[in-house]
Specification:
It contains three helices and three strands; from the N terminus they run E-H-E-E-H-H. By secondary structure, the chain is of the alpha+beta class.
Length: 82
């Protein structure tokens, strides 16, 4: 069953966002009153990855840390653009 692709999943958790990015789903960042939120289009793949994240699926650590650092850099850049 296909889900509505116009809806988004939002999170403040950079760890979850990095896991999703590591697995190919690009985050859109949005600054809301000084807080950066991570937005992802809702899809079956997003739900599969959310389940994998919550199930503690093993990941390549160096790649995950790179995704985390990249996302943190984008987040800090966005915060500085108030």
């Amino acid at each position: 069953m296909a889900r509505d692709t116009h809806k988004t999943f939002s999170t403040l958790d950079i760890s979850t966002a990095a896991f999703l990015e590591l697995n190919g789903i690009q985050a859109k960042l949005e600054n809301q009153s000084g807080r950066v939120i991570f937005l992802f289009p809702i899809s079956d793949r997003l739900y599969e990855l959310a389940h994998a994240y919550n199930s503690n699926t093993p990941v390549p650590v160096a790649d995950y840390v790179t995704a985390l650092k990249s996302l943190r850099g984008r987040m800090l850049t966005m915060r500085g653009q108030r």
